Amino acid sequence: MKYFIYIFTIITLIFFFVSTAQAISLVEGVGCIDSGNCGFQDLLAVVKNLFLMLRQIGFWAAIGFGIYGGIRLTLSQGNPNNIKQARGIIIAAFVGLVIVYGVSLILNTVLLIIAGQSINFSNIWSGNFPLH
């Protein structure tokens, strides 16, 4: 239970200050905020921004777990069990990073097709394609 409270506190501190700025970025590029006359393209813009935000969170979480695994590996003092656990953390962080970017590429491709935009590597990778 103590471990759970510790992890929860760390995660809360990490994401507490970023939440407002991230929430504002969800409506970036949405032209109907003032008028209230939103269309399908505006919905796609919010979905695109949501996936970009989740990709950023996933990236930094994977980097954080990779660093944590590296520290655990450094502090393992040759104990085979600790080395195995640290390697598992590093591998899981890398696999998580691959999954996050793989899903991002797939979703960006689908959004490009739905929005009728040109499909090229730059648009697919960045996710910063115009929807209007």
Question: What attributes characterize this protein structure?
Answer:
132 residues; mainly alpha
Q: In a few lines, what is going on in this structure?
A:
This protein is mostly helical and about 130 residues long. The chain has helices at about 1-15, 20-25, 40-75, 80-115, 120-125.
Q: What portion of the residues fall into strands of 2 or more residues?
A: under 5%
Oligomer: single chain
Distance between the termini: 49 Å
What's the SSE pattern? HHHHH
The tally of domains stands at 1
Query: Could you estimate the helical fraction of the residues in percent?
Result: over 70%
List unreliable stretches of 5+ residues. none
Evaluate the radius of gyration.
19 Å
What overall geometry do the principal axes of the alpha carbons give?
elongated
Mean pLDDT score: 80
Helix/strand class: mainly alpha
Instruction: Please outline the major beta sheet.
Output: none
Total strands: 0
Describe what you observe in this structure.
With 132 residues, this protein is mainly α. It has one domain (2-126). The protein has helices at 2-16, 19-25, 40-74, 80-115, 121-126. The chain starts with a helix and ends in a 6-residue tail after the last helix. The mean pLDDT is 80.
